[in-house]
C-alpha cells in the first residue's frame, strides 16, 4: 500500500542531519545578531556599501538549519 515511488519518507537522513542542524541553529542565532547590527549600522551609515552584503550573509546564516536538514534528507534514500 502507499507505493514507494514519490514518497518523501526519509527519517534516517533527518536523524543523521539533526545534530548538524543544531550546530547550524547556533550559527543562525549568530546570523540574527549580525543581521540586527547590520540593519542598525545601515540606518546610521546609509552610504556604506558593505552593510547590505553583510545583511544578506546574515540572512543566509539564518536559513542554514533548514538547508542542512533538506540536504541530508535528500542524500539518504528511504
UniProtKB/TrEMBL annotation:
Record-given protein name: Uncharacterized protein
Name the residues that span the membrane.
12-36, 43-62
Q: Which organism is it from?
A: Zostera marina
Q: Which domain of life is it from?
A: Eukaryota
**What InterPro entries does its record include?**
TAXIMIN_1/2
**Keywords carried by this UniProt record:** Membrane, Transmembrane, Transmembrane helix
Amino acid at each position: 500500500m502507499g507505493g514507494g515511488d514519490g514518497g518523501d519518507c526519509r527519517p534516517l537522513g533527518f536523524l543523521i542531519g539533526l545534530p548538524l542542524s543544531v550546530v547550524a541553529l547556533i550559527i543562525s542565532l549568530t546570523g540574527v545578531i549580525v543581521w540586527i547590527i547590520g540593519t542598525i549600522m545601515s540606518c546610521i551609515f546609509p552610504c556604506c556599501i558593505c552593510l547590505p552584503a553583510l545583511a544578506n550573509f546574515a540572512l543566509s546564516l539564518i536559513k542554514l538549519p533548514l538547508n542542512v536538514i533538506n540536504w541530508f534528507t535528500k542524500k539518504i534514500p528511504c
